[in-house]
Design goal:
By secondary structure, the protein is mostly helical. Helices cover 98% and strands 0% of the residues.
């Protein structure tokens, strides 16, 4: 009888240990799944960070290109402004000369009118 009781106790202990082992295996699988999920999230975050870093570099590069283009346009604009000022000055000088010639012509006509009337 004592042996039967010991066997039953041993059997109960084995069942309890089997249950504990099953529970621990289940918990292990849950932790493993969570770890895999975290590793996936970590990899996903790394890829996202890498993609964002690449996009930022491209944007900075594009900004630098645009800055250079703005500088070039500014230089071109300044050059055109100077040329326009020079042409405006030349036109003013030519208009002054035209006015002088028109005045001379008017004076010559006046002289001929006076001669013709004599």
């Amino acid at each position: 009888m004592l042996l039967v009781n010991r066997l039953k106790d041993a059997q109960d202990t084995l069942k309890l240990q089997a249950s504990t082992i099953t529970s621990l295996k289940s918990e292990k699988e849950r932790y493993k799944s969570e770890l895999d999920s975290l590793n996936f999230s970590k990899e996903e975050s790394y890829n996202e960070k890498r993609n964002l870093t690449t996009r930022i570099k491209l944007m900075k590069s594009k900004c630098d290109e645009l800055d250079e283009e703005v500088k070039e346009l500014s230089r071109t604009s300044q050059g055109l402004k100077q040329k326009m000022e020079e042409k405006t000055k030349q036109c003013s000088e030519k208009n002054e000369r035209i006015n002088e010639l028109e005045n001379e012509l008017a004076a010559i006509r006046l002289v001929y009118k006076i001669r013709d009337s004599d």
